[in-house]
């Protein structure tokens, strides 16, 4: 019995020592968990994928972000062919956010060239360190018979992006050839050391990875001299996406003018230069001279015949009937008539656009929708009483800044101005289609009313250029 008892005691002591060793090991494991979790994540997986027209015929730019430095590769092929049979390489640039953490992002850009006009392509992007999901897009249609379809809006945030779900669905059914985002992204991309920008770019991937996402900056992009905007987007030209033009639809800014087809010319520009003078008064004059030169080229008889429509897109409008005392509510709007408190005085844009026969001016900033009668110098110039938008003798203005953001709606003054034709505070966005040389269609979609079209017009012009005003 003593032998058995001693054996049991010995076995029990062994078990106690064994359990103590196990607890010690577990304790060490738990102690090391926080150390492991505190290490920066390895993020070589592409995210925030979006595409845009680079201003070169038969091309598309794919842009994405990683948080580790990797190669920049896009594998692609025509729809229905062998997946990823073609490959294009690009490069990445390092973007350091201006916040306190000085976070670093790697922005990758790859240009796909030699695309067949109007053809569908399947692609993914990344490197052997990680690949994106599979996406698809339609190459720019370079033919003269093409009637491009746009979704137009401004002021879309990552909080309360009410219109985004409807735009996602409409993207999936192939309703658009391009998105035109008229400034103010995320609210704001620089917030939380750029993480809000990351979240927003990931949100719009659901539309921008499939349809070219063309942009211009707004006032909410001004932090660190517009650095988040300038680094995250890839627009035509060499002005860091601040202002540029695109012919045919949204896809040209240079090269052989006979190479592209289409119906018109878009001019996209930075309106906030009038309001952030700390970044340099010279930007106002640089933009103005660029606009003047670009409009002169567009109005050469051979160019205006080939591209009759000229459409501008800028964030802050010249006119509005809102009640928030913004610049557009003032008779002496900076955007409209310029600034006299700079040396020399800064020119406005209304006269410039009028003299060069701009047909349509698209704006945002006000979190509402407003359609104006054809207007110049605060006076209405309708085509006729019955058909105001048939051969009008002044440009047409559309304000579409109600896509949805954390700042909610803006209000209107009780009585609209004489040049205000239609107003709505519903969340929503604008659709635009350039049908041919004489007809352009616009309609406003209300997301509050489940996608109902609440306003629409046909803009009909038998003449373009300054001759249309005579």
UniProtKB/TrEMBL annotation:
<keyword id="KW-0812">Transmembrane</keyword>
<dbReference type="Pfam" id="PF16656">
    <property type="entry name" value="Pur_ac_phosph_N"/>
</dbReference>
<dbReference type="InterPro" id="IPR025733">
    <property type="entry name" value="PAPs_C"/>
</dbReference>
<dbReference type="InterPro" id="IPR029052">
    <property type="entry name" value="Metallo-depent_PP-like"/>
</dbReference>
<dbReference type="GO" id="GO:0003993">
    <property type="term" value="F:acid phosphatase activity"/>
</dbReference>
<dbReference type="InterPro" id="IPR008963">
    <property type="entry name" value="Purple_acid_Pase-like_N"/>
</dbReference>
<keyword id="KW-0325">Glycoprotein</keyword>
<feature type="domain" description="Purple acid phosphatase C-terminal">
    <location>
        <begin position="394"/>
        <end position="456"/>
    </location>
</feature>
<feature type="domain" description="Purple acid phosphatase N-terminal">
    <location>
        <begin position="46"/>
        <end position="138"/>
    </location>
</feature>
<dbReference type="GO" id="GO:0046872">
    <property type="term" value="F:metal ion binding"/>
</dbReference>
<dbReference type="InterPro" id="IPR015914">
    <property type="entry name" value="PAPs_N"/>
</dbReference>
<dbReference type="Pfam" id="PF14008">
    <property type="entry name" value="Metallophos_C"/>
</dbReference>
<dbReference type="InterPro" id="IPR041792">
    <property type="entry name" value="MPP_PAP"/>
</dbReference>
<keyword id="KW-0378">Hydrolase</keyword>
<feature type="domain" description="Calcineurin-like phosphoesterase">
    <location>
        <begin position="149"/>
        <end position="369"/>
    </location>
</feature>
<dbReference type="Pfam" id="PF00149">
    <property type="entry name" value="Metallophos"/>
</dbReference>
<dbReference type="InterPro" id="IPR004843">
    <property type="entry name" value="Calcineurin-like_PHP"/>
</dbReference>
<keyword id="KW-1133">Transmembrane helix</keyword>
<keyword id="KW-0732">Signal</keyword>
<protein>
    <recommendedName>
        <fullName>Purple acid phosphatase</fullName>
        <ecNumber>3.1.3.2</ecNumber>
    </recommendedName>
</protein>
<keyword id="KW-0472">Membrane</keyword>
<feature type="transmembrane region" description="Helical">
    <location>
        <begin position="20"/>
        <end position="39"/>
    </location>
</feature>
<comment type="similarity">
    <text>Belongs to the metallophosphoesterase superfamily. Purple acid phosphatase family.</text>
</comment>
